[in-house]
């Protein structure tokens, strides 16, 4: 028979702040990944939707879009992919929000909050698990894109390192947006509300951009909005790194230095929304 | 020296509901406090404040010598909690749940795994260990939650209605676990609706009602407050109730004659408060026999904690009602609802 009270009367000494925070976040990440793997239909829907978008946009709009001076569907196809990739990673927002809203209203949150764990670990663990899911989705999407005719280097030379950097920026953007999702999830009462609350504003953000159309063809007053949109910076950065056609010729700083702009925007979003979310988490239900 | 759990003047309101209205508690190290009280009395709220889940509006508390409000993180390192509703991840297996908790207590992965195995064994969950908790029955979830509270055997434990929903065998097993914990030096605060359980496990009992501790003491002390022994007789026939009542009245306190004897017609049961113990029982039997009353059952009953509970909280409820009707304006200040601002 096991003795219940043997061994340490207290848990082992706490590790230092950052190491502990990281270790706890990994434990929660693992928990969320196990959960995701036990609800495979969620992963499946997460995959079907962007694949459907790629195919619809390519074959429905492909023939009627003008990129630069070209109306060649092949140009549009190569132009489109960076936009679809970027839009797909931002959709992780909704999943993170719903997951966190769900957690906050289940009994398990009391367990977490009564344990001596790092303050942000419940949220960080969720966003990191979503990052893994986003990476898988992106991989599948990239393969589909290659199959239907996306050719990195179509308009300008590229190399493996640049392509990797492009995908890294996409993942960072997705990670940043899951922190927006986290804040939404903490602010609403139900996972359903978090899902719609996490999605609706993504439509204007991803459409008023350079993702699906040539932003210089937008109405004049919308052009600066699209050019300074953080989302556009990542799309432009990917086009540049992948050697895709249709780079925005705009003078706006984020369009001129898109890799830096994308990096700065994403890091800024993480810092701001992580701070707000962790603060909200700590005060929740107290 | 304050005990392992110490609370003073805890107040918590939710909107216009006063959940805690000045709760004071003290649980000496290595003892068990049973927290009793009707639904909505404030038991869970008290536990949530003491386990850092809820900030009180006012008052203070220490657990294991640490201030709950100022050092919540240190407090969390010293406590184990099993709340009223099982806090387990539905999609994780029992084993994964316990491993996760162990690792969040900063145990190494190997140690957490071993500990999970031990606890699953101990709580009769070994067979279901690798199934998602979603597939567990209510009692199994409850046990998994209790196991999670015991992962690091912390010095102070809180259990909110731990045996609700457990079958008799598992309830007994949990009692054994609790006794073992306490003999190992753990301090435990336990809430329960089963008064027998408090009687059995708790060194001290605090009865809460309307967010206040209305009585405290050992189970014997509380019973003594409620009254002494009674003789209970069940007669064989309905017709025998009247003669039996006449005889029993002789043994009562004699204040109200026949009124001392309470009668339950449908069960043919008569009850009278007595003093004199077992010797008296033989006399009663002889007297009843002499007038030809046939009896099915007779016994000397001591008050149970149920009697204590009902008499204490029953009175409190009546008093609260009186106040609401304005019968006793001098005693204001208690009751569930705040007065609307004048
Ligand atoms: N989060 C909350 N919001 C609003 N009211 C609450 C909240 N939590 C508790 N209450 C109220 O506070 C009072 C005390 O509740 P509590 O859960 O502490 O009772 P309890 O003694 O544990 O009851 P039970 O035996 O039913 O578990 C109740 O009136 C309840 O409605
Ligand atoms: Mg309760």
TrEMBL record, chain A:
Keyword terms, alphabetized: Antibiotic resistance, Cell membrane, Membrane, Transmembrane, Transmembrane helix, Transport
InterPro entries: ABC2_TM (IPR013525), ABC2_TM_bact-type (IPR047817), ABC_2_transport (IPR000412), T7SS_ABC-Transporter (IPR051328)
Its membrane topology: Multi-pass membrane protein
Signal sequence segment: none
The ABC transmembrane type-2 domain, residue ranges: 41-284
Any Pfam family: ABC2_membrane
Transmembrane segments: 39-59, 79-101, 131-151, 163-186, 193-213, 257-276
Main location: membrane
Family statement drawn from the similarity comment of this UniProt entry: Belongs to the ABC-2 integral membrane protein family.
Protein name as annotated: Transport permease protein
Subcellular location: Cell membrane
Automatic annotation (TrEMBL), chain B:
Protein name according to UniProt: ATP-binding cassette domain-containing protein
Protein topology in the membrane: Peripheral membrane protein
SUPFAM superfamilies assigned to the protein according to its UniProt record, in alphabetical order: P-loop containing nucleoside triphosphate hydrolases
GO MF annotations, alphabetized: ATP binding
Source taxon at top rank: Bacteria
ABC transporter domain ranges (all copies): 5-235
Gene3D superfamilies, per database record: P-loop containing nucleotide triphosphate hydrolases
Region (Disordered): 316-342
Keywords: Antibiotic resistance, ATP-binding, Cell membrane, Membrane, Nucleotide-binding, Translocase, Transport
Annotated compartments: Cell membrane
Similarity remark: Belongs to the ABC transporter superfamily. Drug exporter-1 (DrugE1) (TC 3.A.1.105) family.
PANTHER family listed in its UniProt record: ABC TRANSPORTER ATP-BINDING PROTEIN, DOXORUBICIN RESISTANCE ATP-BINDING PROTEIN DRRA
Source species: Streptomyces omiyaensis
Any Pfam family hit: ABC_tran
Main location: membrane
């Amino acid at each position: 028979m096991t003795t219940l009270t043997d061994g340490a009367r207290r848990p082992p000494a706490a590790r230092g702040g950052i190491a502990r925070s990281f270790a706890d976040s990994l434990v929660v990440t693992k928990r969320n990944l196990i959960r995701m793997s036990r609800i495979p239909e969620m992963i499946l829907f997460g995959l079907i939707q962007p694949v459907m978008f790629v195919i619809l946009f390519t074959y429905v709009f492909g023939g009627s879009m003008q990129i630069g001076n070209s109306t060649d569907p092949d140009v549009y196809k190569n132009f489109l992919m960076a936009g679809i990739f970027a839009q797909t990673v931002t959709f992780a927002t909704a999943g993170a929000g719903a997951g966190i809203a769900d957690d906050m209203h289940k009994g398990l949150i009391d367990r977490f909050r009564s344990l001596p764990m790092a303050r942000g670990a419940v949220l960080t663990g969720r966003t990191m698990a979503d990052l893994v899911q986003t990476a898988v989705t992106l991989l599948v999407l990239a393969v589909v894109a290659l199959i239907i005719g996306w050719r990195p280097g179509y308009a300008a030379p590229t190399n493996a390192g640049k392509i990797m950097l492009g995908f890294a920026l996409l993942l960072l953007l997705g990670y940043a947006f899951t922190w927006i999702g986290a804040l939404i999830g903490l602010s609403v009462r139900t996972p359903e509300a978090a899902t719609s609350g996490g999605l609706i504003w993504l439509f204007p953000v991803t459409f008023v951009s350079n993702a699906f159309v040539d932003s210089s063809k937008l109405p004049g007053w919308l052009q600066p909005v699209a050019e300074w949109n953080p989302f556009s910076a990542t799309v432009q950065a990917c086009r540049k790194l992948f050697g895709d056609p249709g780079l925005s010729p705009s003078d706006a700083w984020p369009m001129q230095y898109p890799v830096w702009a994308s990096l700065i925007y994403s890091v800024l979003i993480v810092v701001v929304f992580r701070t707000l979310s962790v603060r909200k988490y700590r005060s929740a239900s107290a | 020296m304050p005990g392992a759990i110490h609370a003073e003047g805890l107040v918590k309101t939710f909107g216009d509901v006063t959940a805690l209205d000045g709760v004071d508690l003290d649980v000496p190290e290595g003892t068990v406090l049973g927290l009793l009280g009707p639904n909505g009395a404030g038991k869970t709220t008290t536990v949530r404040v003491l386990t850092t889940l809820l900030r009180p509006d006012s008052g203070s508390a220490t657990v294991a010598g640490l201030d709950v409000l100022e050092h919540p993180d240190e407090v969390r390192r010293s406590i184990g909690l099993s709340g009223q509703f099982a806090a387990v991840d539905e999609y994780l297996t029992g084993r994964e749940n316990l491993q996760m908790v162990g690792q969040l207590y900063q145990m190494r992965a190997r140690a957490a795994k071993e500990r999970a195995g031990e606890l699953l064994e101990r709580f009769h969950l070994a067979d279901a260990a690798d199934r998602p908790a979603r597939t567990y029955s209510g009692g199994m979830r409850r046990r998994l939650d209790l196991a999670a509270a015991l992962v690091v055997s912390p010095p102070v434990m809180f259990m909110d209605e731990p045996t609700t929903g457990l079958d008799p065998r598992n309830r007994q097993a949990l009692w054994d676990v609790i006794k073992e914990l306490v003999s190992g030096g753990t301090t435990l605060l336990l809430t329960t609706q089963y008064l027998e359980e408090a009687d059995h496990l708790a060194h001290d009992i605090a009865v809460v009602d309307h967010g206040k501790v209305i009585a405290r003491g050992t189970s014997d002390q509380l019973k003594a407050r409620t009254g002494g022994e009674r003789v209970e007789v069940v007669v064989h026939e309905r017709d025998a109730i009247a003669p039996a009542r006449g005889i029993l009245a002789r043994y009562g306190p004699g204040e109200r004659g026949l009124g001392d004897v309470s009668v339950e017609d449908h069960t043919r049961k008569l009850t009278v408060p007595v003093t004199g113990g077992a010797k008296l029982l033989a006399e009663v039997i002889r007297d009843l026999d002499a007038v030809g009353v046939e009896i099915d059952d007779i016994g000397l009953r001591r008050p149970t904690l149920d009697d204590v509970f009902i008499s204490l909280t029953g009175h409190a409820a009546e008093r609260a009602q009186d106040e609401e009707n304005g019968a006793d304006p001098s005693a204001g200040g208690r009751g569930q609802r705040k007065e609307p601002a004048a």
